[in-house]
Amino acid sequence: MDLMLLVVLILGVSFVLRAKAQKQRIALLAQYLRNYDIEKLMERLVSSYMRALDEKDSNRQQQIWELQASVENSLASQFSSFADTLAKAPEPANGASFKISTQAFYFPFSHLLEKWQGNRHSFDLRTAIRLHADGIARVVANTAGRSPKDRAFTLLAEMYLMQHTCHWYCKSKAVASARMQLRNQTTYEQVIQSVSPETRNAYLALLGER
Length: 210
What we know:
It is a single chain. By secondary structure, the chain is mostly helical. It is about 75% helix and about 5% strand. It has ten helices and two strands; from the N terminus they run H-H-H-H-E-H-E-H-H-H-H-H. A two-stranded antiparallel sheet has the order 1-2. It is globular, with a radius of gyration of 19 Å. About 25% of the residues are buried. This is DUF4760 domain-containing protein.
């Protein structure tokens, strides 16, 4: 068989299998998210935070911060519950996986290879979601005593990093980073530096970068 034809066939099969795997992952994540209003709560917070940051009147700005308390608490509570539910979820039987590959390229059946290699190039979505839940709850509780503005910036970063993890799981790290840049006008690296130190250290350790 012509070498070029063989390469084309391999790439074609890889594309089809990758698309199938992505579809399975999206459906799996949606299955566990459907009982929560996490996305709506995040949208409300982002919109309100941006309005507060643009507000010139300090009293009005303070009012906007204070009005978000119930939304913040709901987000922290719901995301913690989501993390608890996901932590109990078994590995799916349809061929999908909770593993997120840290390799730059997709390889068919890479999750099977990872299992054989001891998961050296992947991390578990369930562990990452628990990490994000703890980070969001910590910032909402404001255990570090941040000012309302600094607290809002930090919580935005926590939410953006969590979204990045979900998009990375469903698609790839490159797609997740591009979406973050396009939708939030910030980079993956900037977000990592903007989350709480506890989240950053735990996240980098999970990725094997610390």
